[in-house]
Specification:
279 residues; alpha/beta; 7 strands; globular
Length: 279
């Protein structure tokens, strides 16, 4: 849809998001067949979501948060955006609005956008390419290291292991070249970690909090509340990076999340969470 890029994109408790995540993973595992998707219809729905977001107060909240973040980092451009874990936007209204926000950011900053989610259907990938977005061909597990250009990592409602891997890959002064639009670190810090397999990931996120400035994106219209609940912009300004000692960056260990951990978690979910209990 050539004209789309011309557009200038826990209210509920985290347990609800967790149930959604479990339900999504189990349904995909137990029902691997790809649904019928009308790409033209899906493109129209995405355009409608972009227009709705453009006409909502949330667009200015998003713009203001990004402007404050860039000002703090003393830059004006976002040349690269990497998106992990968007989900099946053909089936999920929340994912559709998250995609609309991504397209809004891309349009405003003329950014190059790269996406990966193993859940994407083939028709969804076709739609993303039609929108001018590039697909990442391998599962990076969030371990992309940035170069000297600023990179915005767009990971709304993303798995905490992927967030932690992104931080781990850029551990040190390189974090100054990263903006993370994802689950609020403050809320992660205040929460209780129920899954033992996520403890290392959560501990790494907590460890980096002294280096973070967080801008909360208040979801203030109906379509945004579910899509952007608990979402914040996180930046790592030099002023805060300068406050920590060299020892702070040492003994980081291995990336906290690996694909095998996810597969073990999936097997545990299959065994312990019948679909009827979590829908």
């Amino acid at each position: 849809m050539p004209g789309l890029d011309e557009f200038q994109l826990v209210t509920r408790r985290r347990s609800h998001i967790r149930r959604q995540f479990v339900n999504h993973i189990l349904n995909r595992a137990l029902n691997p067949r790809e649904p019928e998707i009308n790409t033209e219809h899906l493109l129209r729905e995405i355009l409608e979501a972009v227009i709705a977001l453009r006409n909502s107060p949330y667009r200015q909240i998003l713009y203001n948060g990004l402007a404050e973040s860039l000002s703090l980092l003393e830059v004006t451009a976002i040349p690269e955006i990497v998106c992990y874990g968007l989900g099946n936007f053909s089936e999920s209204r929340s994912a559709k609005y998250q995609l609309a926000a991504l397209l809004t950011i891309k349009s405003r900053y003329k950014s190059r956008v790269h996406l990966y989610d193993p859940a994407f259907f083939a028709k969804e990938i076709e739609v993303l390419k039609t929108l001018g977005l590039s697909m990442i061909e391998i599962n990076e597990e969030g371990k992309r290291k940035v170069d000297n250009n600023l990179t915005l990592f767009y990971m709304p409602h993303c798995f905490q292991g992927i967030i932690a891997n992104c931080i781990h890959a850029n551990w040190g002064r390189e974090l100054n070249n990263c903006i993370l639009v994802t689950n609020s670190f403050r809320e992660i810090n205040d929460g209780i970690v129920a899954d033992a397999g996520l403890r290392d990931s959560v501990e790494l996120i907590k460890r980096v909090i002294p280096c973070v400035t967080e801008f909360k994106l208040e979801a203030n219209f109906d379509s945004a509340r579910e899509a952007f609940n608990s979402t914040s912009i996180h930046v790592f300004p030099n002023e805060k990076l300068d406050r920590v000692t060299q020892e702070f960056w040492e003994n980081i260990g291995n990336p906290p999340f690996v694909q095998e951990d996810f597969e073990r978690e999936l097997n545990r979910l299959r065994a312990n969470f019948p679909l009827a209990e979590i829908q």
